[in-house]
Amino acid sequence: MKTTRQWIATGAFALLPLAPLTALITAPAAQAAVAPEALVGPVADYKLYVLDNLEQLVSHTRDFTAAVQAGDVEKAQALYAPTRVYYERIEPIAELFADLDASIDAREDDYEKGVEDPDFTGFHRLEYALFHDDSTEGMEKYAQGLMDDVNDLDSRVQGLTFPPETVVGGAAALMEEVAATKVSGEEDRYSRTDLWDFQGNVDGAREIFELFKPLAAQEDAGFVERVQDNFDDVEETLADYRLEADDPSAGFESYDRVSDADRRALTGPVTVLAEDLSTLRGLLGLN
Amino acid sequence: MSQFDRHSGCPFHRRTDRSQTALPPADTPAPAHRERRRFLKGAGLTGLGLGLGGIGLSGTCPARAASGHGQDVTSAPQEQDAQLRYPFHGEHQQGVVTPRPATGMLVAFDVLARDRDDLERLLKILTERMAFLTQGGRIPERDPLFPPPDSGILGPVIAPDGLTMTLAVGASLFDKRYGLASARPQRLQRMEGFPNDALDAARCHGDLALQICANTLDTGYHALRDIIKNTPGLLMVRWKQEGTVPPLPPAPGEVDGSARNFLGFRDGSANPDGSDDVLMDELVWVGRDHDEPAWARGGSYLAARIIRNFVERWDRTPLHEQEMIFGRRKMSGAPLSDSTAEGREQDVPDYSRDPEGKITPLDAHIRLANPRTPATEKNRILRRPFNYSNGVEANGQLDMGLLFLCFQADLEAGFITVQRRLDGEPLEEYIKPVGGGYFFVLPGARDDNDFLGSGLLAASA
Asked: Which residue windows are coiled coil (chain B) (predicted)?
């Protein structure tokens, strides 16, 4: 996607529908509002980031679902976590489409009948088959459904206007995801690949933070420093569990291997990040 | 007996420490019973002869409320005044000898602070928030583009509502993380399971415990959410259990009894008098004579237990058997040893003429817990429990029980000894302890310049 990024960076902003600027001018006098036009660049960059990840999500999902269709359990197991990462990174945008988010990423707890519920589909339905049943039997329709949903998501996001408050608020939303379901290890309870998702959420939050950091620094330099430190802390702890220190694509150890002490060590900075990032919208004068 | 006889307690043991005295604001119309209490308080403090007529009966202070109707630690709560405010600063923390209000919760935390400095920061934040919350006041406002600093569940002005917050430390805080080991209270230890326990690891222990009590649960929840909001990265809730006790409206001529537990028995009948300073210094507060580090003086041990009650089974047990198990009459609360028809809860059991347990079985709960011998006086504890109800078990039975909380100057002589005596008691058929822990209640924060745990940090520096 480098080429797309470069292409758009050369000035094709018209292709990126943005919220009307008037929508941004809602900050009361209490907060020295960031000039709305200053948000245009970071929001455009963020859309590029999302499109990059979507493209990766589509192609990885194609390989993953093909392995399921082919009945190759081992290959499908290996592709499960590396595919999800791209979804986890862009959750603030993906979640704007509640119907797709449910069919792609809902967990069995979201359904009264659990794994037996006919509406339980998507990644976690396949996770259950691959890691609990060690089988792809009867999974063809779920694989096809996931592929269709991901393609649908891709086309919907292409035409989406990215509201700045959703983008900026996405950093906090991602950390809330981490705090609610990643630290506890309930997201990927059968594959135990939670750390992949964890890193994906952190990546997505950090991307947003980095894009808006210069603006935030103008308002509160201490805030920026604190958030950076806490991101570093989280990433350092996560790095301890990488299978290959120098190769991120090698992924992570099973979440079962994460010690209680490290779960607590992760909870601290994650909670501070969630608290701090919950103020990022206000800091930038966004509603 | 006159009303004063019943409620004034002993003028010679009156508290002079105002730290545990409710301070109603001057501009609030006080209910009649509170007026009476203030009147009595004045009488006690100045040593005027009011109520002296009642003292000669036994020569000792009756274990009754010191400051009015419903003021014994485990009396059924009667104070529902939203403006009821207990001072935060003092030699001791609040919430120990303070009369128990209608609701209470214990919240255990893991401390996430990364080092000693972080721990000190945490203790200062906790002290500052507790000082504010227990006194009440207007919540701060903030630019509405930001998350509000207060949950808002009590509205723009927080009423103190009888709120007390009591901070205690667990044995695990003294591990290698913060360099506190050398200052550890002598008897602070990790709770070990007793024979009848079925401890659930997710509801046991903790680096810190915060007891939050108030007239209403919402006031407690507000306080807890404030603490969580203000300590990100420093604290993680490990477990929490809240409970209630039924309030009893004051009625003329009514005997002021202990609140009932979910087995239907009055709980706290034999509690030592929380308003008796001399007795509290002996049984509850750590002092010079207690073989503890100097910094710990003014503190107390808290034993917390989540004790499930099998209430359906209990309700299918004959009343006579229930009473034999406890050693008390269910309705009146009178000890079985009291043969008179008008037996009262307050009557002291007398086992001297019943060495074989023909009247009060030798394994009756109250007889094992407090054998009433000179040798077992030092094992007395100050109980301050609440009833809890958590929902329904998979078998359709109610998950109800007792959030047992008790305070003592010596954990081993107190709760641990008493519980060992109770091991194997017939009541075990109907109860199952599933959680809890041992903690040490820090000495109080003296004033605005002090913080809870300052002595502990200084002693281990």
From this structure: 109-136
